[in-house]
Design a protein that fits this description.
The structure holds two protein chains of two kinds. Chain A is mainly α. Chain A has a domain at 1-56. Chain A has helices at residues 6-12, 19-27, 29-53, 63-92. The mean pLDDT of chain A is 77. Chain B has nine helices and no strands. Residues 76-86 and 170-178 of chain B have low confidence and may be disordered. In chain B, helix 2 (26-43) crosses helix 3 (50-70). Chain B is globular and about 50 Å long. Chain B folds into two domains: 1-76, Rna Polymerase Sigma Factor, Chain: A, CATH 1.10.1740; 80-167, Winged helix-like DNA-binding domain superfamily/Winged helix DNA-binding domain (Arc Repressor Mutant, subunit A, Orthogonal Bundle), CATH 1.10.10. Classes of the chains: A mainly alpha, B mainly alpha. Chain A binds chain B through residues 1, 3, 5-6, 9-15, 34, 36-49, 51-52, and chain B through 17, 20, 89, 92-93, 96-97, 114-116, 120-121, 136-137, 139-141, 143-144, 146-147, 150, 153-154, 157-158, 160, 162-169, 171, 173.
């Protein structure tokens, strides 16, 4: 471990550094390698954070792609169905049977529909003591 | 919105990300994050600068994480780093996690606080209760150890290119200096 590289850490971490010391550290090839590796390390950590923050991918991919796949399947089914129907219509569809004859039958005349004659007459008369009043109680 | 609410909104992601890498399981990290901010709300925010408060909350998080690990509730220890990892994203991630897990606790914490949370050296020093000089040297040791452990994997990652960035993903430098 080379302690002179600590200034490179401070530099990449945004701390205040002495330019002359930094220049000296960067003049060493090992120092330059260290600087690049420290940045790569930072890149790895940021990749990791980005992966954690990314929303989970749905299995079917993007919604647009799912709709396109669904539309393609529906279209293929329609076209296939049309051609299959055109080709095998004579095999699959049975010959139409003659339509059944419909007979209209008039309802029978019911003798009971005649209104019977009254056997008792009930007559309603007002009570002579009855008085008109207002209110419900 | 109270100061505590604002503080929670600003730091919950960083605290969770840090804890997630130490304790392993997301569920446990979520529970510990809640515990951290429960303690924050009970204690109230200290009279301090933003830098001091960030260091304070990560000190709480670190102590809780260390207790969690000490109690043996951590995920099973990761397997050793494969000698020749295959160049898939998952394999690279697994190799990185294994290498980080193999670091001594302080070096691991300093590396995570820097790379995952984006704390400054003085904040890390306060959070881990060490000097800034110790932060410098131990962070360098952590990177050197990771570099040695991930030699082949780093080469594989290098095939995707490298982008220069002088601050970690969650860096708070710009915010604090506004």
């Amino acid at each position: 471990m080379d302690a002179s590289h600590e200034i490179l850490d401070a530099f990449i971490d945004g701390e205040t550094v002495d330019p002359a010391t930094l220049k000296q550290a960067l003049s060493d090839p090992a120092g330059r390698d260290y600087l690049i590796d420290a940045w790569l390390l930072r890149g790895m950590v940021q990749d990791e954070i980005a992966t954690e923050n990314a929303p989970p991918q749905s299995r079917g991919g993007s919604p647009v792609r799912s709709w396109l796949i669904a539309a393609s399947i529906a279209g293929a089914c329609l076209v296939g169905g049309y051609f299959a129907g055109a080709k095998f219509a004579h095999v699959i569809v049975p010959a139409p049977e003659p339509a059944p004859q419909i007979e209209s039958v008039a309802p029978p005349q019911r003798p009971s529909s005649v209104v019977p004659a009254a056997t008792r007459v009930i007559r309603l008369e007002l009570d002579p003591n009855w008085k008109a009043s207002t209110g419900g109680r | 919105m109270t100061d505590v609410d604002r503080f929670y909104a600003d730091h919950r992601e960083g605290v969770f990300r840090y804890l997630r890498r130490i304790v392993g399981e997301a569920e446990a990290a979520r529970d510990l994050t809640q515990e951290v901010f429960l303690r924050v709300s009970r204690a109230g925010l200290p009279e301090s600068t933003d830098v001091g408060r960030r260091a304070w909350v990560f000190r709480i998080a670190r102590n809780l994480a260390l207790n969690h690990v000490r109690d043996g509730r951590r995920r099973p220890a990761a397997e050793g780093v494969p000698d020749r990892p295959t160049p898939g994203t998952q394999e690279l991630g697994a190799a990185l996690r294994s290498a980080i897990d193999a670091l001594p606790a302080l070096e691991r914490d300093l590396f995570l606080l820097r790379e995952v949370v984006g704390l400054r050296y003085d904040e890390m020093a306060a959070a881990c209760d060490v000097s800034v000089e110790t932060v410098r040297s131990r962070l360098h040791q952590a990177r050197t150890a990771l570099r040695a452990a991930l030699g082949v994997t780093l080469d594989v990652r290098g095939q995707r290119g490298v982008r220069c960035s002088t601050a970690g993903p969650g860096s708070t430098r710009d915010r604090s200096e506004r």
